[in-house]
Task: inverse folding
């Protein structure tokens, strides 16, 4: 496993990420980190807006109008999956051996399952109801929590060895 | 002027106290800073998109009901940001990228102030379904761009210009 991670890290692509300059920052790595944060805001921002709405906040806003949130979240997810893979390759041997990285991946996987179930529960049957059913409320709470865990684990990757 | 201020701040009891807790306080505050960022940009971004003419069916005043959450995110980030600066003042004052971040923050703040004072009532009175006036679209675009600038400069802090003020 470690040998494979090391080969990834020292591949031409891995070295390019950590050394090539770009117009947004000193190197591809910093630029990708920045884009990873943009993607984070595009995923977690709309997700949390939807979650707090389903939990009853801002009840005058028709839930149906938040259907478009998923498009922004998908774009954010595409950005973060691709930047995440690039970041991982460039530091595969380092990050791949840390438990906190796997906590991050697990929490994202769970958050995605919760989000897709939430979408089906709320938007699956025609126009979304303005009072969320109990199941959707539980999913909203899980979504709030899981994205927070993902952010926390992601940040801790810079600290936990 | 900055150098004496930075070293004075660095030696204040509050800064010294924060420095002593840096091992857990820094990652803790950084995590909150990222969560706050998502909350702020998620909610303010939605409001900006509405001002730009998306989700026209929803009255602006209804979308605005979510703004307290953006304020929660902003307060979280202001608080954690102050903790960063107070515990390591030279690291920030000496970095031109940090001043760029502050500049973007000021632009975002002034822009929001202009919206509130000059257009807030008119925006709230705009009937649902009607296109937003150009002025509101410009304000929304300035808001999105300046928050993107805050994020860009913030994330670049360790990479761009960090060495410039190393002697400060």
Result:
């Amino acid at each position: 496993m470690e040998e494979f991670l090391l080969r990834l890290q020292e591949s031409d692509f891995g070295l390019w990420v950590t050394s090539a300059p770009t117009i947004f920052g000193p190197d591809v790595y910093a630029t990708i980190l920045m884009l990873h944060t943009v993607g984070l805001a595009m995923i977690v921002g709309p997700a949390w807006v939807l979650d707090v709405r389903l939990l009853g906040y801002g009840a005058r806003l028709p839930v149906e109008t938040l259907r478009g949130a998923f498009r922004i979240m998908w774009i954010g997810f595409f950005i973060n999956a691709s930047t995440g893979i690039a970041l991982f390759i460039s530091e595969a041997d380092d990050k791949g051996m840390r438990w906190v990285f796997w906590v991050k991946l697990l929490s994202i996987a769970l958050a995605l399952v919760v989000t897709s179930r939430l979408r089906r529960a709320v938007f699956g049957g025609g126009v979304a109801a303005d009072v969320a059913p109990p199941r959707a409320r539980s999913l909203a709470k899980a979504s709030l929590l899981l994205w927070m865990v993902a952010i926390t684990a992601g940040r801790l990757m810079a600290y936990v060895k | 002027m900055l150098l004496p201020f930075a070293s004075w701040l660095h030696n204040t009891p509050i800064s010294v106290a924060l420095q002593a807790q840096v091992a857990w306080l820094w990652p803790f505050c950084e995590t909150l800073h990222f969560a706050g960022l998502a909350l702020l940009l998620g909610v303010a971004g939605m409001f900006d998109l509405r001002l730009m003419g998306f989700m026209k069916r929803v009255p602006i005043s209804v979308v605005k009901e979510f703004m307290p959450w953006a304020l929660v995110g902003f307060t979280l980030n202001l608080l954690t940001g102050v903790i960063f600066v107070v515990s390591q003042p030279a690291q920030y004052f000496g970095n031109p990228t940090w001043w760029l971040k502050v500049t973007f923050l000021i632009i975002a703040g002034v822009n929001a102030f202009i919206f509130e004072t000059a257009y807030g009532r008119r925006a709230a009175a705009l009937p649902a379904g009607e296109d937003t006036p150009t002025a509101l679209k410009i304000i929304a675009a300035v808001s999105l761009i300046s928050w993107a600038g805050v994020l860009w400069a913030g994330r670049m802090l360790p990479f761009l210009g960090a060495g410039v003020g190393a002697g400060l």
Notes: The helical segments of chain B are 2-10, 13-20, 22-52, 60-64, 67-87, 89-93, 96-125, 134-156. The CA atoms of residues 14 and 27 of chain B lie 18 Å apart.
